Amino acid sequence: MPHVITQSCCSDGSCVYACPVNCIHPSPDEPGFATAEMLFIDPVACVDCGACVSACPVGAISPDTRLEPKQLPFVELNAAFYPKREGKLPPTSKLAPVLEAPRIERGDGPLRVAIVGSGPAAMYAADELLTQRGVEVNVFEKLPTPYGLVRAGVAPDHQTTKRVTSLFDKITSERGFGFYLNVEVGNHVSHADLLTHHHAVLYAVGASTDRRLDVEGMGMAGSGTATEFVAWFNGHPDQASLPVDLSHERVVVVGNGNVALDVARILTTDPDALAGTDIADHALTVLRGSAVREVVIVARRRPADSAFTLPELIGLTATHEVVLDAADHELVREDLAEASDPLVKGKLEILAKLGDAAAPSDRPRIRLAYRLTPQRLLGRERVEGMAFTVTGTDEVRTLPAGLVLTSIGYRGTPIRDLPFDETTGTVPNDDGRVTGAPGTYVAGWIKRGPTGFIGTNKSCAAQTVRELVADFNAGVLPGPTARSGELDRLVRRRQPALVDVAGWRAIDSAEVARGGTERPRAKFTVVDEMLEAAATAPRAPLHQRLLSGLLR
Ligand code: NAP
């Protein structure tokens, strides 16, 4: 009865170190770790102790006897990562080699770090820093709610993935941690302010916008981007009033990465099933009135080049009707004959078994379409469809649609006072040290570009923190010039409506209470409502506030 890792794997590697027999790979020290689509348990070496189950922050691991039918393909997927062997390996006491944690070697006062952003890269960086005693971390976030794309990006039907927020909540309780939510760096406080109060500033601000498709008609009513649409259904306050019209039968999504699959799934899932999630109320109302019967996910290249990952494709096809037309089935057959990479082959084998788009359907469905290069949007006042050419030819194809969403990747935006690489949409850096900006570091998508999974940010943040601590130990970070406690006074003066850890807990509890017994939470989607909830947080007694001001 080996254990099995399923689709919701976040790849942060926590399970690897919990395993007493080192049977989960690739481990963070192995070359394939950074690019792996998920981690895999070796069924022949697994001793069924269940240690990995408790360590996994997103509930992605189960014994193979407890899998839901839709998870059964993951038994084979885990096993296929390893060479075929018979029977069981004798148990060993081998452990995965633990990557060395950064060690602070100076004893002259605490290391103070400001982290800008509060998504996974920020929270993993805070955790890594706080493994040492005598470190203070202040996390700045412009929204009153933390956790970045885990809150506003992960699709609401992937609730297990969102469970990683319990881990992040634990980090907020660590000694030395402080939240400055609803505080915008560059507005309420500057980079220079942060350097005055800290040894270092670490930006983990992600990629806050999207790559734009430069074709005629984009911007017309009925066109938009997947990033806006995802933020809308996830209740991000900036997109709460996005006009989403689903009064037509077809939606076209351009690009076929995992975000495109998320968008297509939400548009074709029975709203009653979404009603038990934390989807924004406004999105549920619109989806309940939806007339959409088909979402076409359009890729410019061939099936073998599909950007979505194999675990996500397995998950999607287990729950949704996904079809291909006859010409695309032919492309899949051709690619399958050539494929050697096991993950690509795995995707093609699933695509080959999908139904034919010509067959009638009695529920909303998803169609994957290939080799179509976007040319322009059709329509005058509002979108009526999209024109493509068959990639590499002049042959034009059109798809009638009432909504066209581009899903061609996220993109980082420049940070005031820091260098920026326009080509990659990242801040130029060397293992996280920002080029030409002493005391400044980056982690996550703003460091390496918008790729990977939640847990990829753990090793990314750890690398940055190692460099930061090495610089601190080497004495090249000038200490803060302001006295401890002054930061809090400065920020409160500039932004009296700042939300701290207690304020976030109050918002969190209020959302969970609003969700009742049917939903994990009902999100606030308006900043003022969040602030009202934060204001109900009990204030710490005066002596405690004074003490924490002195200690921080
Ligand atoms: P992505 O995986 O980079 O996919 C981008 C897609 O856009 C590709 O199909 C790409 O095609 C296409 N594209 C780019 N430029 C185009 C153009 N000018 N015209 C037409 N198509 C174009 O991006 P993403 O879906 O935004 O995902 C970002 C990251 O988040 C990925 O690492 C993803 O795995 C991760 N993510 C993971 C999950 C999950 O694990 N559940 C969920 C969401 C996101 P080409 O390949 O031809 O360039």
Features:
Ferredox_Rdtase, FAD/NAD(P)-binding domain, 23 strands, Rossmann fold, 552 residues, five-stranded parallel beta sheet, binds NADP nicotinamide-adenine-dinucleotide phosphate, Alpha-Beta Plaits, alpha/beta, ferredoxin--NADP(+) reductase, seven-stranded parallel beta sheet
Give a verbal description of the structure.
Helices cover 33% and strands 16% of the residues. It is an alpha/beta fold and 552 residues long. The protein has three domains: 3-80, 2-Layer Sandwich (Alpha-Beta Plaits), CATH 3.30.70.20; 111-208 and 412-500, Rossmann fold, CATH 3.40.50; 214-408, FAD/NAD(P)-binding domain, CATH 3.50.50. The longest helix has 18 residues, at 456-473. It is globular and about 70 Å long. It binds NADP nicotinamide-adenine-dinucleotide phosphate. NADP nicotinamide-adenine-dinucleotide phosphate is lined by residues 213, 254-260, 262, 299-301, 305, 307, 309, 312, 374, 407-410, 450-453.
CATH topology of the largest domain: FAD/NAD(P)-binding domain
Supply the number of helical segments. 21
How helical, in percent, are the residues?
25-40%
Oligomer class: single chain
Secondary structure class reads: alpha/beta
Biggest sheet layout: 7 strands, parallel
Hetero groups in this structure are: NADP nicotinamide-adenine-dinucleotide phosphate
Percent strand: 15-25%
Pfam families: Fer4, Pyr_redox_2
Cofactor: FAD
Domain 4Fe-4S ferredoxin-type: 1-29, 37-66
Organism: Mycolicibacterium sediminis
